[in-house]
Amino acid sequence: MLRTGKEFLESIRDGRKVYLGGELVRDVTTHPAFRNAAQTFAMIFDRRASPENRDVMTYEEDGARHATYYMRPKTRDELRRRTETHRRIASWTYGLLGRSPDHVASYVTGLSLRPDLFEGNRKGFGDNLLAYQRHMRDNDICATYTVLPPQGSRKPEYYNRPDVVVPTLRVVAEKDDGIVISGMKMLGTSAVFANETWVGNVLPLSPSQVKEAVTCAVPINAPGVNVWSRKSFERAAVSEFDNPLSYRFDETDSMIIFKNVKVPWERVFIMDDAELSREVYMRSPAHSFGNHQSTVRFGEKLKLLVAIAYKVAKVNGIAHVPQVQGTLSRLAAAEAGFRAMIAGQIEDCEELVPGYVNVNRRYMYSALLWGATHYYQLCDDVRELMGGGPFQVPADISVLKDPELAADFESYWSLPEQKALDRMKLFKLGWDLLGSEFAGRHTQYERFYSGPSFIVTSYSWNTAPWAQFEEMVDKLMASYDVPAEYRIKAAE
Ligand SMILES: Cc1cc2nc3c(=O)[nH]c(=O)nc-3n(C[C@H](O)[C@H](O)[C@H](O)COP(=O)(O)OP(=O)(O)OC[C@H]3O[C@@H](n4cnc5c(N)ncnc54)[C@H](O)[C@@H]3O)c2cc1C
User: Fold this and answer.
1) Residues near ligand 1 with C-beta < 6 Å?
2) Is 252 in contact with 191 (CB distance < 8 Å)?
3) Domains of the chain
């Protein structure tokens, strides 16, 4: 089933408990902190099924039409179709929504290719997982995930700490009809707009954290679930003109507290296995599908970054300066190179689960690492091009209310090829992407959404063909020897 935007909005008016500081938000679709981003999510739901997108972004399975991100790809073309679906969603949101509805859906679809992993944990859990993937697909569910314990309660070895493990979300009771979980998880991006959260562990747990090793799915409005949102940048936006990105694309991030939340058995997928609770993502295509979507999204954001850099250089009349062209060229090359990293993931696709194709994991992890380590540097390059431009425009658009100030603004700020208002509009947009609080959150997001850098780096370490690299050097060194005249002669 494909839901409309209106049906999606209706589904999140469900009595959920979202806290913004001390305020309990009754309806996120109408509240000034969240309503525009809610509309952005609704727009995605609507556009997928429009005539120009339907053939790519939806597919038929089990007698109904679904979003393509639920498709389990058997050919390179099907993989390509998934990618194009991600790309279109990211292009509508300029790569600014990390948890658009295709992200967690891709994770769960990847997991659904290895039900045996879950079945091996407990009989029936494999079927639970398959049924959950169908539930998400058939009901067009928008999900977030909370797959990290809060800071300070993780596997001690990873943080070079003594073996003191602070309890985090864990199973506190097992009953005939399900389990009861209690504790806190981080950091549910878009949780305030999601129908459900996937609860799991994407960072390693300590072997002693057995009761924390639970993987399950929970509706955001389930009794006992409390969503604590960070500050809303949407509410802090002065106006759409002044903060065009914060205004529409603040997907939000939240801590989720689970207070004795009942989870029925059919939504439980893993219990009591600290290693498996993390490994399922790597042993199935889940981590690949989810992070492939992330790289495609990042690629669309890079385009916006380069586009703003070019436009700023142009209106400032510096695009012809060789050094500036050098900066622009490096930015454009980075964007093109990144697109190639995405294309390569498909062209050199691999088989992780027999009968299904997966993106090339090495390329995917290198794109992930590249994005996490280069984003802030690229932003810095564009900020350098902007100079003091963002601070040379008036504080906000209210300047137009006063006819005298408006006339002064028009006459002093206009350039031969650019009206004052257009200049202000461009610099406000640029600052919202690169300098505002919304922008700061994005810099942090790109660095951390897939884990801290020492973890993201380890993915490349784990997938690189070190033996082949070593063999290459050995072979090369074996092809020559110490020149005969320097060889030590055997004792005569
Ligand atoms: C904006 C944003 C959105 C997010 N969205 C989600 C989401 O939707 N769902 C979700 O589950 N999670 C989400 N996360 C969480 C994200 O996965 C974590 O931020 C990430 O795993 C890092 O964990 P941490 O923030 O607790 O930092 P920490 O793990 O505490 O790390 C802090 C710093 O210490 C360094 N460090 C710590 N130990 C070592 C060591 N042994 N060696 C070297 N360096 C070390 C790290 O590299 C890092 O620089 C989000 C995070 C952000 C910032």
Assistant:
1) 99, 144-148, 151, 158-160, 186-189, 253, 441, 444-445, 448-449, 451-454
2) yes
3) 286-466 (1.20.140.10)
